[in-house]
Amino acid sequence: MKKNFLWVLAVPPALAAAQEDPVVVTATRTARPSLEVPASVDRVYAEDIRQGRAQVNLSESLGAVPGILVQNRQNYAQDLQVQSRGFGARATFGVRGIRLLADGIPASMPDGQGQAATFALGSAERIEVLRGPFSSMYGNASGGVISVDTEDGPREPTVWGDVSAGSFDTWRAATKFGGQWGRVNGLGELSHFDTGGYRDHSAATRDQANAKLKIGLQDKSSLMLVANALEQPDTQDPLGLTRAEYRADPTQATPNALAFNTRKSISHQQVGATFDQGFTDSRLQATAYGGQRTVQQFLAIPLATQAAATHSGGVVDLDRGFSGLAVRYFSDLARNLRFSLGAEYEQMSEHRRGYVNNFGVQGALKRDEDDTVASTGLYVQAEWKLADRWTVHGGLRSSHVRFRTQDHFIVPGNPDDSGEKSYDATTPVLGLLFRPNERTTFYGTFGRGFETPTFAELANVNPPATGLNFGLEAGRSRHLEAGVKAILPAGLRVNAALFSIVTENEIVVDQSSGGRATFRNAGHTDRDGVEIGAETLSTGPWRVRVAYTYLDAVFRESFNTVTGTPAVPVTVPGGSQLPGVPKSVLYGDLRFQKEQFYAWLEGLYKARVPVNDQNSEFADAYTTLNFVVGLLQGSARWSVSEFMRVDNLTDKNYVGSVVVNDANNRYYEPSPRRNYTLGIQASFRF
Question: What are the pLDDT digits (tens) for 320-345?
C-alpha cells in the first residue's frame, strides 16, 4: 500500500494515464480528447507545475509547449514576456496579443492587455495552451490562448504547506486547504513571495490569495464561485541595459532607475461566478465577474521632457474597474452533430492620471482622464462527423470593441483630447480532421483573427497633434495550419504542425524617444513555422519530453520609423525579423522517478533575437541547463517532498529577455547566473 501511494505521488497525472489521450477544452469550449480536435493544443498538469518548482512564474512550466515562449524578465515590475507564434513579442510590459483565462474568466482586458502575475500556480490543476486559427473564437488579441484552471478540493479535507528559499534572498511560503462537504467542494490558497532580485534595484514582494467553491445543485446544475487577489507593493524596476552596460556588469541597474527610483505598485482583486445547467442532450452556462485593479508606476523620464505641455509625466496612476458577462449553450443535435453558441460582454473603466516624477517623488498633475473600453462578441461553433473517419469543425465570431476617453486635463497648450473609436471584425474558422485509426489524427485549419491597439498604444500621437492616436487601425490576420497527432505503439506521443500567418496592418512603433512611444500600422508581416512536441508515455521510471519551434517572422514591406534620443529617422527594410522573436527554440527534459526519489535535467536553446525593428542589434543565442533532485515520503494520510534545484547549471551569462525598440538602446534584460533553490512540500489528509 505504501509503495503504491508513493508511486502515484511521484508520477504526474499525465503519466498515470499514460496511454490516454489528454482531454482539452479551449479549442471547442467543451471537453474533447485532443485527437478529436483540429488544433494545436497542449495541457500541462499540476505535478509538472509544482513538483520541484518555485510556482511563481509561467516561465517555469511552459517550456515544454511548442510555439509558446515565456521569457522571465527578472523584473517583476514589468511582468513576463509571453508570445505565441510571435504574437505578443512587441509587449514591453504585461502580455499582449494572447488571451489569458483563469477558471474560464478573462485575465485579459477588453483592449487585449493582460497580466500573468495574477495566476495562482500553487493551486492550479492544469494549464491549457491553444495556438492557431481556433484562438480567434476568443475575439480580440487572440494570437493564442493560455487558460489556467484551479484544482477542485479532494474528497477528504486536506491541508498543504509549501516553503522554498534560494539565491538572491528569494523565498516563497504557501498554504492551501480543500475538501468535499456534501454537495460543496472548496479549495483556497494563500502565498507570499519575496526576492531581493538578481540585479540591483529589482526587489519584489508578492502576496496572493486564490479560492474556488463548487456547489452541486438540483437537476444537473452547479454553481462555481472564484475569487483571487494580488498585492505587489513598491516593486523595483532596474530597467534594461545597453549592450556595453550588460557586458560591464549584468547585475547593475541603470543610473536613471536609481535617480528616478523606478518602481511599480499593484493591487488587484477579482470575483466571479459560473452557473452550469445540464439537460438531456445540452448544457447552458452563464458567467459573471468583476474586479478592481490599481497601479502606480514611476518611470525614468528626464524632467525637461516631462515639462512639455502635452507630456503625461513620469508617474502613471490608474484606478481601474472591470466586469463581464457570458452566456454559452452547448448541444448534441444528433449523434454526428454538436454545436455551441455564446454571447460575451466585457468592459473596463479606468481613471488615468499622470504626474511629474521629480526624482522618485510624485509632482505636479500632467494628465487626468477617464478611459473606457467595452467589447461584445457573438459566436457559434459546430462539429459535424460526416463519415466514420472524417470530421468538420467550424466557427464564426462577430466582435465589436469600442474605446472612449474623456479628458479632464485641459490647460494652455494641452486642449481637450476627448474622443472615441470603434473596431469591428468577423472572424471565421474552418477545420477538417481525418483519423485513419484511433491513435492518429491528420488535420488542416483556416481562420482569421484581429488585434486592436491597447489603450497604452493609443495613448500618444506625434507632436504637434494632441490626444489619442485614433488613426491607428486593428491588425488583421489570416491563419493556415496543417498538423498530425499520434500516439505510437512504442509509447510515444507526437504532435507536429506547419503554419503560415499573414497579418495586415501590423501595429509597429512609429516614433520612440524620450520615454514616449507612438504607434502606426505597417503593411504586412509573415509568420511561417513548424512546431514539434514529443513525449514518452511509458509507466516506467524514465520520461523524455522534447519541444521544438521554428518561426520565420518578418516584415514583408519596408517602412520608416523614428527612434533614439535624440530621435533619428530609420528605414526598416522588408525582410527584417520581427523584434523579440527567435527563429528557433528547442526544449528538452530527461526525468527519472521511482518510489521515493526523482531527478531531472532540462535544457533550453534559444536562437539570437533581434531587439529592434531594423535588426541593428541582436541578443545572442544561448543554451541553459537546469537540474532538479527530490525525495518523497508518505503514507495513506500524509506526504512530504523535499527538493533541490540548480538553475543555469553551467553558470552562463546570457540575456533571457529583451525590451523591444527601447529608445535609449537599453534592450537587454540579463538572466541570473548559476542559482539554487531548496524547498519542502507537505500535505496531510484528515
Answer: 999 999 999 999 988 899 999 999 99
Supply the DSSP symbol for 577.
B
* 10 — pLDDT class (breaks 50, 70, 90): very low
Residue-wise pLDDT for 166-207, tens only, equals 999 999 999 999 999 999 999 999 999 999 999 999 999 999
Q: ω before 566 within 30° of 0 (cis)?
A: yes
Those residues whose C-beta lies under 8 Å from the C-beta of residue 352, and which sit 6 or more positions away, are 316, 317, 318, 367, 368, 369, 370, 371
User: Is the pTM value of this prediction over 0.70?
Assistant: yes
Alpha-carbon span 117 to 114, nearest angstrom: 9
Per-residue pLDDT, 41: 94
| Size of the chain in residues | 686
- Cis status, amide bond into 573, omega within 30 of 0: no
Cβ 285 vs Cβ 330: under 8 Å: yes
* Integer Rg of the chain from CA: 25
For 648-660, b/e burial (b = at least 16 CB within 10 A) is beeeeebbbbbbb
CA-CA distances (angstroms) from residue 405 to 373, 455, 459? 9, 10, 10
Cβ atoms of 609 and 577 closer than 8 Å: no
Q: With contact defined as beta carbons under 8 Å apart, do 143 and 85 qualify?
A: yes
User: Which residues, including other chains, have CB under 8 Å from residue 222's CB and lie 6 or more apart?
Assistant: 214, 215, 216, 275, 276
Cα–Cα nearest to 502, from 528, 484, 469? 528
> Is beta strand 492-504 parallel, antiparallel or unpaired with respect to 524-536?
antiparallel
Q: What's at 577, amino acid-wise? A: Q
Does 2 score more than 90 pLDDT? no
As a whole number, mean pLDDT of residues 645-656 equals 97
The three-state secondary structure class of 458 is helix
pLDDT of 515 reads: 67
Q: Is the pLDDT of residue 502 over 80?
A: yes
Average pLDDT, the chain: 92
Taking the C-alpha atoms of residue 254 and residue 663, their distance in angstroms, rounded to an integer, is 14
Q: What is the dihedral of CA 573, 576, 579, 583, to 10 degrees?
A: 180
CB 101, CB 95: distance < 8 Å: no
- The DSSP symbol for 26 reads T
Q: What's the per-residue H, E or C state across 293-341? A: EEEEEECCCCHHHHCCCCCCCCEEEEEEEEEEEEEEEEEEEECCEEEEE
The secondary element (H helix, E strand) that includes residue 277 is strand 263-278
- In this predicted model, what pLDDT tens digit does every residue of 266-287 receive, in sequence order? 999 999 999 999 998 999 999 9
SS (H, E, C) 342-373: EEEEEEEEEEEEEEEEECCEEEEEEEEEEEEE
Higher pLDDT, 93 or 203: 203
Spatial separation of the C-alpha atoms in residues 373 and 346, rounded to whole Å:
8
Distance CA 552, CA 99 (A): 22
Asked if residues 429 and 134 have their Cβ atoms less than 8 Å apart, the reply is yes
Q: Are 588 and 546 in contact (CB under 8 A)?
A: yes
In sequence order, what DSSP letters do the residues of 582-635 get, joined into one string? -SEEEEEEEEEEETTEEEEEEEEEE--EE-STT---EEPPEEEEEEEEEEEEE-
Own/partner pairs, 20-24, CB within 8 angstroms, 24+ separation: 21/487, 24/128, 24/130
Residue 427's pLDDT is: 96
